[in-house]
């Protein structure tokens, strides 16, 4: 198993590729064009939605910590940064046979969490390169919350032109800017075992704190509220949950939002664990 995990970590950070992807969540099926290149030692990824409202994301930078979009391959790239030892102490990795994905042979790996605070995964790795060609996020009851699968893959080097946006509605993100510090005035009194602070970012009205266990990521937003504003509630989109509640400090009111691919009950506990240092 260690060999496959090392091959995966190498593939998601060193390979250039492009292809078409089917993305299924909440009964919806979307198609995406994904292009991933390397420029001056940094990863550049362009994701264009081919169905639904026209939209596109071009992201640059070494890490995926501060991205809320992109592809699940960005998520897999965290494995190298956080260390495989930490990941393997938090999840069971089980070989589940082989299958054919995008006309390529893959090995299927089940990633089973060791506690209730994480989602499970099933990943199909390309036998030749180790690139994940299919990934499913799975709830504790076995329900598939999200499925991401290549239907066409090209492993040829990516041209500069292929990395340029093609849509009128484009959002560009540089994850290397303003996201390296882990210093914040806020802290979490509790986090699930294995999660560590990996980045913070100042917002116009507050701060964003990012935590990762090496495979899963959740983000905490703490933002100022006006005197008449009250925001509480929850939202679920596929495997991503967002839970929001209020916080008061020295007469100032804030809204706290936890967003991540984590169980809803865990998000609720995390919202209430936020406090001033």
* Average pLDDT figure: 86
The number of helical runs is: 5
Helix content: 10-25%
Largest sheet features: 10 strands, mixed
Task: Identify the overall geometry.
Answer: globular
Work out the number of β strands: 18
Task: Explain the overall architecture.
The mean pLDDT is 86. The strands form three sheets. A ten-stranded mixed beta sheet has the order 5-6-7-8-9-1-2-3-4-10. The chain is mainly β and 277 residues long. The protein contains five helices and 18 strands.
Summary of the model, kept short:
The chain is mainly β.
Secondary structure layout plus pairing:
Layout: H1 2-14, E1 17-25, E2 28-39, E3 42-49, E4 56-61, H2 72-76, H3 78-82, H4 84-90, E5 91-101, E6 104-113, E7 120-126, E8 132-138, E9 144-154, E10 170-174, E11 186-188, E12 196-203, E13 206-212, E14 217-224, E15 233-237, E16 240-249, E17 252-260, H5 264-272, E18 274-276
Parallel strand pairs: 4-10
Antiparallel strand pairs: 1-2, 1-9, 2-3, 3-4, 5-6, 6-7, 7-8, 8-9, 11-18, 12-13, 13-14, 14-17, 15-16, 16-17
Throw out a few tags for this protein.
277 residues, mainly beta, 18 strands
